[in-house]
Each structure stands twice: as structure tokens, then as C-alpha cells.
Amino acid sequence: MPSTPLANGVTPPLCGGERTEVTASSTVADDKPGVSMMEQLVPEITTHALSYLDYPSLCRLSMTNSLMRKAANDDNAWKALYHKDFTMEQDGITPVNGWKAYYATTRAIISVNTEFFSIIRDRALQAMARLWLDSDYVKCIHASGELFSGYNEVMQSWQLCFNWEQGFDFQVHTVRTRILTDMAWVTMKAYLNVDGGPFLITNVFEFHNGRWHMVHHHSSVMLIDDQQVVVH
């Protein structure tokens, strides 16, 4: 890391090296007139530097000035952030609207998916009804293996779950998303306790009227020591 010049213009020695004089003339000579230091960096270095920022920091950086906005909107920077925050699985795709939009949509999908588990924990039937798309093609397969088809059947199944069972506070891990324009699916493992096996869950969402709605839920259970616990 470069040493900071002292007040008298002398740079402290690096690792025992000799002191070097830093003058105004030499600084000007190394810089391009009218060009900032950020503009002089090659794109690869800029992207690498921005990859250390998190989502809020990258958004704040884009609001500082036009140069920072251009740097913070770089598609490679958002691709790197997506891989850091979510998954490397989709390295080969090319999002239609760029990685920034894909990142934002992924955050929205994960937020809705998290809301789904909060609804189960709180046994909030009205919230579950708002989450699901009111359509005859929606499907729900609970861990019992029973299939419910159509909005009314699906809501009746959740009403039975909420009436007869306690709320469950799932610990969700290994969340993976995939988005195709107005449809997205999420796969994950959900645990009720550290000793039991995970529930393998797939949720599918569709985008309607400015909101993401659930259209499919499938839960199955892994066998641990030949024992199986069926929940919701």
C-alpha cells in the first residue's frame, strides 16, 4: 500500500527503502490533464475494486456523481456482486436487462420467499391468500405427498395446516434462484431442528400486476436414519 506523503512533501520509506521527494511538478506530469484517477484505471481494475463493495455501498456510490454512476452501473461489477451474494451457478447466463436488474429481481424474489416462511411461522392465512396467485392452475404439494390444485383447494390445505398444527420456524439454507422474465423458481433446504433431516422445497413465482405471486409449492422430506417426519 503506498505511503502517505508527509507535510514537507517527503514520502516515508517503504520496507526500509530510501526516502523519495514528491514535488508538485512530478505529480502533474504523471496525471492526464482533466482526467480523474478513476478514469485512468483500466476497466478490469475498476471492476475488481468495486467488487469489494456491498449492495447498499454500490447504490450510494452511483449517486455521488456522473463518473461514479457510470462505474457503479458497470455490468461486470453487478455480476461480481451477484456471485458474491447469491451463487456462482449462473455464471454462464446473460440476463436480458443486465446484471444490475437481475440482481435487483433476485433480491425481490428472495424477499418474497422469506415472507412465505414468515407466514407459515405466524399461521397467517390471509397473508398466505395474498401471496398465492388466484388462478386455477396453481399447485401445492405438501410434505405428506398430497397434491392440491387450484386456488381454492390450495387455500383450504393451508387453512387445515394452520388450524391443526403449530407455527413452524424454519431455518432456510442453500437458497438458489432462477429468473426468466416474469417467472422465477427457488430451491432450498429448510430445517426445523438440528437433528432432523431437511425439507427439500421448491417454490415457483410469477409476476402479475407489479407483484410476485406464488404459483407452485413442493415440499418433500429427506430420510435420516430411516425416520421420516412429515410437516405441512
Automatic annotation (TrEMBL):
InterPro entries: F-box_dom, SKIP8-like, SnoaL-like. Residues 43-83 form the F-box domain. CDD domains: F-box_FBXL4. Residues 109-223 form the SnoaL-like domain. Pfam families: F-box-like (PF12937), SnoaL_3 (PF13474). This is NTF2-like domain superfamily. It comes from Arabidopsis suecica (Swedish thale-cress).
